[in-house]
Amino acid sequence: MNAPAHGPLAGKIAYVTGGSRGIGRACAIAFAEAGADVAISHLDDEAEARTLVQAVTARGRRAFQMAADAGDVSQINAFIAAAEAALGPCDILLNNAGINLRTPFGQISEAEFDRMLNIHLKGTFFTAQAVYPGMVARGGGRIINIASQLGLKGSAGIVTYCAAKAGIIGFTRALAHEAGPLGVLVNAIAPGPIETDLTRSRGAEWKAEIESRLPLRRMGRVEEIAATAVLLAGPGGSYYCGACLSPNGGDIMH
Asked: Which domains does the chain have, with CATH numbers?
């Protein structure tokens, strides 16, 4: 039996896509620590998802996990329906699922383009659409979309990724205009370079080069992105509408 909820998200239910690792996992745990019950989707990452469920329940909150491809609308809808049946309707949606493929522009295939845009932009769009009517009917909700500072500045070799993340920022701002008057706050987070399994796989030389460019001289931690997500999800985020917060170590200053 779960303990009484305490914290800024007490009594709330959060759904996190791509929640088994990295930023999504840190946000799921932070939401639980702030008092929310948490449902996550993942892409066939069952072992990591089970350990996350244990981490959430160890904090006295309810948890649910399910494999679902964020680029497939039927699987998105199945996850939303199953999460609602297990925990209840969504108060906080964190659209985090994503991939990163590095290919020179002239070699990008149609299949790679479609996969990148499907996972990032299409997935974000239709996951938000799946929970949106319920939020409107209940008079409120929070939708938080994970973008990237590369959607603001661009970078060579990852054109499709940058385009997808820029699209998420544009989608966030457009939906915020429509959703804000109905009580649904839509915002984005555009992290800079963050220590994750993916970035660690790039090696020490790549990391040193990235860190040398940053005013803070270090990569960020997933917990620092999770803190921003909790802000936007909770009472402290009540006047953010269409914002794109970018914890990036000074990579972009705006």
From this structure: 13-245 (3.40.50.720)
pLDDT tens digits along 53-79: 999 999 999 999 999 999 999 999 999
Terminal alpha carbon distance of the chain: 46
Q: Based on the residue annotation, tell me whether 132 is a catalytic residue of this protein.
A: no
Q: Which residues contact 79 (CB under 8 A, 6 or more apart)?
A: 15, 17, 39, 41, 66, 68
Sequence-ordered alpha helix ranges (H) in the chain: 22-33, 46-58, 73-86, 110-117, 123-138, 150-153, 159-179, 197-200, 204-213, 222-233
Single out the catalytic residue among 132, 161, 239, 240: 161
pLDDT tens for 81-139 read 999 999 999 999 999 999 988 899 999 999 999 999 999 999 999 999 999 999 999 99
